[in-house]
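Input.
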Amino acid sequence: MSSPTDFINIHRFIPDTSESVSLFVSLTCISIMSVLFGRKTAGTKLRSINYARGLVVALYIVSWLFSVMAAMLVQTNNYNLVSCELSIFTCIALYAGSKVIIYLFLIERVHIVTAVGVSRWNSVMFKFNMLMLAPYYGIAGLAVVYRVAYIKQDGPTAGQCHIGLFKPASIPFIVYDIVMSCWLTALFLKALLSSTSLLQGPTKSKLRDVARRTLLGSLLALILSCANIATLVHFEGNERGLMCLATCTMDVTLNAITIHWVTSRGHSGSSRGGSTNVERTSQQRPHYPMHGIEKQVSPLESHISVSIESYVEEYHQLNMANKYPSTSSQYNHIE
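Output.
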């Protein structure tokens, strides 16, 4: 005959609704990140991945790894202090890592649309923005110090893992996120609205489109992060670990989807005049026969080769042609 103790021990291994939902969220996010990673890197060689593209790939890897860790931890969260501690450390390390990558990506985009033709470390604005990342590492240290991870010992929720951050860590997180995102958003708005901006002019429609997309992506990332960290402030360490992992997983995945959309080539550019220069250039370029097997290029609009670097390169070519028309005509004559 079974005793009450045996019933409690068996009940420990029966997943409840929250555990099932959290596991479903993690598995769904793993699938989404795998698809995004495959679409973004299809047919891309390793040597063609530069700094900006590397940030996007790194964000996909970190987001996928977060989802995998969350899927493993939600199944062992109950009655397991080690799993509970690993849950909060995973949230701090991988979530903060994904935010740093997003900030680096936005800083790179600000540099591209505001300082065309200037190297990163020769730009005062780029150096200042990189310096603004320094406080975030200190805030991550506060999160480690003021973390919460414990197993409830009594009541109807006995055995459940609860994780979170105390206010000395959660409030600096949300304040820094708001300040940094608003600062980068202001830089994009200034570049879009200023009459003296490098984005003004008929030949820079693609750069303006990139700035608009990145501006929207920055605002979406701010809203998602503020909503997630606000829950940490509200619960102040009393949120169940399963739900905290689920919300952080959704936050990281939605941020990655946003960056994927920002770096994907829109269909709007093909219907505007901005694409006529590319089409005209491709028509004027001489075509040489290729012997053997021709290389097939992936037609995916979200391919990693479609990036801001191509827009900047086109801008430089147009700028040099306008600046040195005699040189350009000599080259055309030679051809």
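The longest helix spans residues 81-114.
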